[in-house]
Amino acid sequence: MNQTRTFLLFALLAVAYLLWMAWEQDYAPHPTNTPTTTSTTAAGGNPVPGAAPAIANGGAESATATAQLITVTTDVLRLTIDTRGGSVVRSELLKYPVTPRTKKDPEPASIRLLDDGATDYFAAQTGLVSADGAAPDHRAIFQAAQTSYELAAGQDALNVDLTWTDPSGIKVLKRYTLHRGSYAIDLDQQIDNGSSKTWDGNAYRQLQRVNRPVPVYSNYLQRMSDQSQYGFFGAAWYSPEQKFNKLGYDKFEKEPLQSQVTGGWVAMMQQYFLGAWIPPAKEAETFSTTVVNDDGNAPRYVIRSVGPQISVAPGQHVSSSAQLYIGPKLPDVLKNVAPGLELTIDYGMLKIFAEPLHWVLAQLDKLTGNWGVSIILLVLLINLVTFKFTNAQFESAAKMRKLKPRMDALKERYGDDRQKMQQATMELYKKEKINPVAGCLPLLITIPIFYGLYYVLRDSVELRQAPFFGWIHDLSAADPYFVLPVLYTIVMLAQQWLMPQAAGMDPTQAKMMKFMPLMFAVIFLFFPSGLVLYYVVNGLCRLLQQWWMMRRHDAAPPPAKAAA
C-alpha cells in the first residue's frame, strides 16, 4: 500500500475528529443556568434511612452569626477556610501558574481550583447531622484560635483546629492537617459528648460546584485551539466493584447517583486538576448527587459521601476521618493517595495507547529535562521499533511502481470490466509476490499513536506549560506562530516530490494528493504543538527512509559489460 491511502485515511480521521469537536461545542447539550424546582433544604432525602435527617444543601447561610476567613499556607498550597462550616472555599496551587513564567511576569498568579466567587464557585464542605441531637453541618459557625497559619521552615505538618460547642454539651473539633509537599489534606472530626444522652448521627463530606461559564473567544482559531474545552468537566466517583465513573453536569438530574460504596471516593474533575474526598477505606459510605438552586443564582452541583452512623455515649468521644485531595492529576501521586484515583487522568478508549506513551515520555524527560526533546526521542524509538514494517511499506510501493507499465496494459486490455481487471491485478500481485496489505501495518500503528499522544498532551499536567525551545512555551497549546504546521507541510511536499505517482492511482487521487499538504497545514493549526512536533520529526524520519529505499529499489541497474 502506498503513501496515498495513508494520507487519505489519516486526513479523513483528523477532519472527522475536528468536526466532532466543533459539533460538541455548538450543539451538545449543556446544563441550563435557569433555576429549577429542586429543593434547597432537603434535596436527596435521608442518605442513611432512619439514622439522620436530610442534609441541607442550600448555599444561603444564616445571618445571625458572623464568620471569618482563615488563610493556611504550605510550600504547595494556599487555602482559605471559612469558619462557617469549616469549609475550604479557596485553594491556590502555588506550583502551577495561570500563565507561563516570563521575564516580564516572573511570578504570575497561581491556579485557583476551589473558589468562593459566584462565577467559579467550588467548595469542599464537611459536616455532621443528627436525628435528635445538636450537630454542626456545613453552615454552622466554628471558632478558630487565629486567622493565619503557615508551614514553617523545617516543619513537616501543620494543624488547623476549628471548634464548635452546643449548650447541650456536644462539642466538635474539626482538624485539618496539611503536609509539606503534599496536596492531600487529612481531616478529623472529633465529637465529644458532654450531654446526658447518647449522641447518634453521621459525618458527611461533599464537593459543591457551579458549571464553568461558556468561554468567549475572539476568533475561530482561538476557539478551536483551546484544548481545555474538550476535556471532561464534572463529577466522578470510584468503587472497587464498578470502578471509575463520570457524571457530566447535564446528567445530574437525569441520572442521579445513589450508591453504597466501601473503599471508594468522590471527586469534581477538570482538565489537569481535581478535588476529591477520600473516606476511610473500610467504611461503608453512601455516595449521592444533587442539584442546588437558590436565590436565582446558577445551579450548584453536589457530589456527597455520607458515612455510617456514629454513636457517642455520654462522657465519650468518637472521631470521623477522611482525606481531601486538592491538586494536579499526577499519576504517581494519585496512585498513592487512593486506589483508582489515577483514573481521573481520563484517556478514554485510547488508554491502552496513551498510558504507555505517557510512561515512556516521563522516563525520557527524567533523562533530558525537556518534554520536547523527549517527544523527539519517542519518535526515534517508535521509528526504530516499526522500521521493519515501514520498510515493507516502501518496498511494496517500489514494486508497484515498477509494475506501472504492466498495470496500464491491463487497463487497456480490460477497459471498464472491473471484475476482470481486479482478478488480473491480483494474479499479477501473486506472480510478482507483492502483498498490497503490507503497507497497512505502519498505518495501524501510526493512527493509535497519533490519537493516544493527543490525549497525553491534552490531559497530562506535566506537559501543561512545558516549554521546548525558542517560541514554543507550552507544548500542550497550539504553535502561536504556526511554524511547526508549516514545517510539516514542507516535509509532506518533499515526500510528494520524492515519490513518483504510484501505479494504479487515478486522476482524482492524484489531485487530492496535491491538496493534502494544505489540508494538513489547516488541521495542525489547532493541535497541541507537541503533537505537531512529533509529526514533523516523524515526517523527517519517513522522508529519509523513503529516500534511502528509493535509492535502493528504484536505482537504474548498472550497464552491462561489453563482451570481450
From TrEMBL:
It is a multi-pass membrane protein. Pfam families: 60KD_IMP, YidC_periplas. Its main location: membrane. Residues 70-360 form the Membrane insertase YidC N-terminal domain. Keywords: Cell membrane, Chaperone, Membrane, Protein transport, Transmembrane, Transmembrane helix, Transport. The chain crosses the membrane at residues 371-391, 436-457, 477-494, 515-537. It is found in: Cell inner membrane; Cell membrane. Residues 371-551 form the Membrane insertase YidC/Oxa/ALB C-terminal domain. InterPro entries: Membr_insert_YidC (IPR019998), Membr_insert_YidC_N (IPR028053), YidC/ALB3/OXA1/COX18 (IPR001708), YidC/Oxa/ALB_C (IPR028055), YidC_ALB_C (IPR047196), YidC_periplasmic_sf (IPR038221). CDD domains: 5TM_YidC_Alb3 (cd20070), EcYidC-like_peri (cd19961). Interacts with the Sec translocase complex via SecD. Specifically interacts with transmembrane segments of nascent integral membrane proteins during membrane integration. Required for the insertion and/or proper folding and/or complex formation of integral membrane proteins into the membrane. Involved in integration of membrane proteins that insert both dependently and independently of the Sec translocase complex, as well as at least some lipoproteins. Aids folding of multispanning membrane proteins. HAMAP family: YidC_type1. Belongs to the OXA1/ALB3/YidC family. Type 1 subfamily. This is Membrane protein insertase YidC. The gene is yidC.
